[in-house]
Amino acid sequence: MSSTPAHPNPPVSTQPTAMDWLFLLSCVAAVALVAWFGKMAYTEATKTETAKRNGEAVVAWMQEATAGRFEPGFGVAACAGAAPAADKAATTNAPNTWGGCLDAILVQTTMKTLDNPFREGIALDFAPACNPEDRSLAGNIVMEKITATPPGSAVPTVTSPLTPDVAIDQKIQVRLSVCDKGAYAVKVAEFEF
Amino acid sequence: MEEPRKAIKIADLDAAALLGAEVEADISPDLPRRQWLYAWLLDPNIPGNYQKSVDKWIAILIIANLFSMVLEQVPAIFEPYQAWFHAFDVFSIVVFVIEYLTRFYLAPEDEEFKAKGNPRLSYMASPFAIIDLLAIVPFFLQAFVPVDLRALRFLRLLRILKIFRILLPAIKEFQQLNRERTFRQKIHALVFNSPYGGKLKDFFDVFIGVWVLISVIAVVLESVASISYLINIEFVILDTIAVAIFTIEYMMRIYSSVEEPGHRNPLTGRIKQFTNPSTFIDFLAILPFFLEVLLHHVLDLRFLRVFRLARLLKLTRGSDATATLFQVIKREWPVMSAAAFIMILLIVLTASLGYLFEHAAQPEKFENIPTAIYWAVITLASVGYGDISPVTPIGRAMTVVMALLGIGIFAIPAGLLASAFSDQLHKERDALKASILKMLGDGELDEDEMALLRSEAKRLHLTVEEMNSILEVLQLELESARKSLLQLPVNVIAQNPLHAVEHYKYLLNQIAQLGIYVDKNAFLDKAQSDDRLTVSEVDIWKRILEHR
Predict the structure, then answer these.
(1) pTM, entire model
(2) Of A124, B32, B238, B301, which is least surrounded by CB within 10 A?
């Protein structure tokens, strides 16, 4: 039978007993505990949100820079692209690399004010990749270069870490991610730089 | 003074009414328009009208409004679908206004208001009507008066109060059912199946069920990166609320489990409840939240999040089909374990042979026996991914044999389960017939017995036709039992008052039949002439004939 009747014994009193009050008290305590734990989870989640906002700020700056970095006199020289074809012959300098550009970004742009939300007082940093086994990477920004594969390949693109030695004289397709509290990558955007 | 309990004979039992099947409302089209409309839409005492459907859809709309109001607080969801939210708001208001006006128009037909001086005014002054009005007024207010958006949102929250139209009667019924019961017994009635739960218990189950679905959908959506990116914080808040609800439910269950049969001891009873599989599922449903928050500095326990999907298993508590399935597995376990043993034996054997014959030819594919076990299972189960396949002639020959064997061996447990499941259903239906026969010991079914019959029929998913055929069989069985009764000695018949009554009726019928066929005057002459019958015996004879 689906219904299981309770004991048929008549109750002594219908008023809440000391045990009932204790139960109610423990219910209130349990709700308070869950709320407190929820607050802690919320705080941790907001750190990931801040990391994402940092990533979005970097994306915004880089997207804005994309338009101007191939023009002469670009503000952050280390991030400037190659000169137009006509001026190429006159240029003898080696092409700018991502390492140099990154150093300049972190010193010269508004990004110098950004902090790593997971590590108080530590400035925003870039990492080659997120690695869940190294949780100190939480809050770091990861840049990857997206390269198109030849026609007929199984996958249309491949990604590789944007290492400091990668030349940025030409436009490149990049993916920006941030490492969350478990040092797992959270993709923020893919764009042209 | 209590009303006499209604009893019904098996011959008068209506299977459709018993199973709550849809019956056509008996409403005369000649009624005055207002009365006719009230009878169809709002009268709770006419079976088969639209009153229940109206209440149900209004309740669904209220809950949908609640969700809409919560989702409006999430900019990532609200902003792209603002127009849809507004359209839904307008639709809700239109429905609520129609509902209010209909109730206002039909108030003179309502038992609650018709006796009062001005039924419509009485309706307007009733608490539910005030709540209904509060639910729609803010919408019109913003059209005429500049209202602060936050104040408007707060006023819209009043719409939720409409839920009390459904909740309050259920609370009243619950209080009525549990009038003389302790606090713990009331908690028990709310979380466990018992005759004291009433509608409030149903609402409680629906509430928990809705939260289970919400939290499971949230877990699934969290795995979608694009959604999780936008509303990660909202998922955290949602999970916290869900865990708070499930924790309270879990505590209620453990605390009141002492009221369950076999759980009387406050300590061992609760431990028994804690180790009960369904309660353990409740525990697993909330554990990941606590562990993840407590240990997040030490370990990354996000893999535990997937265990939140165990919350879905909470829904099986209300399903009798799951209980039947577990019963079947338990009953067939010896045979199933034997089949599983043969399966394991076959897998290990074929994997070893596969390794033996194929390792030399494909060392990278048949690298070791565990890899070969993967191949054996995929082949025996007829999945055949094809990532590992034999190339040697003897390996291929063996694969042919094992593929054929696999069809039979892997089908055994499935076949066993299917037949045992059907067998179990037959047994349960037989048990239902036996219990109806037992209930009919006094020849009738009272209201409690009808309720039990209804719940059992619902549990066994009986259709009206099936119930009718069971009742027909029962009627025939009762008739045949009545006939065989006559062959029993009188002292045996006398042991059961019902049988005694039936036997008495039979004897009266026999005398009446005798009276029909015999020459009455000759009978009386003979009876009185030799003092064969006493005066009183002759008197009884005459009375019986007079009354038949």
Answers:
(1) 0.73
(2) B32
